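Review form for a predicted model. The reviewer records the input and the model, then writes brief findings.
Reviewer: anonymous (R2)
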Amino acid sequence: MQPWQTPCIRRASRRARKSCSKRPRRSRRKERPHEPYLYSFAGYWYCDLLLALGRTGELRKRAASAIEVAEQENWLLEKALGDLSLGRGAMALGGLDAARKHLDNAVNQLREAGHIEFVAWGLFARAALFWEIKRHDLAKGDLEEVMRIAKRSEMRLFECDAHLEYARLALVEGDKDQAREHVTATRRLVDETGYGRRRPEVEALEAEVR
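Model under review:
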């Protein structure tokens, strides 16, 4: 796994968590009180925690259960989040074919559900997969879509992260000039938005592109 993958996905999750916290909360637990697991965003955050702890077996069990319930109830967003969790879990275990299937499903379902601001989660995760299988062209395509979403919706932190991943990708490909352009854009966004926890990463990349 490349070093940018997990931080990239986690940053997307943190921002999406903050975004959805401003929305009216839906309790799937109340709709299905007999079920043992959390669903919707709460279930996804728990799977996110399980992934960080390396408990992929439990993640797979919970996410598969979420998908089963979502299909029964016709909950498209919940199914998308389940596929996103399963895709990330499969990638952590090296199951790249399964990861591709689940992440493709997640991106398509998030689009269909109308949650365009959350499509970036799936795109960042899938870009990480494409990096892993050395399909840099496809990784760039997903980052380009994240950039379009970010600019259209004025999600400047997503835009900052996309520039940062572009810079790392350009360095891997040996294009220091392009990397420098993206690092400069990242620095500007960090300074303008006060995205302070990104400064160490920006400074490290600035040293690499000098």
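Findings: Residues 56-73 form the longest helix (18 residues).
Further findings: Confidence is low (pLDDT under 50) at residues 1-6, 15-36.
Recommendation: see findings above.
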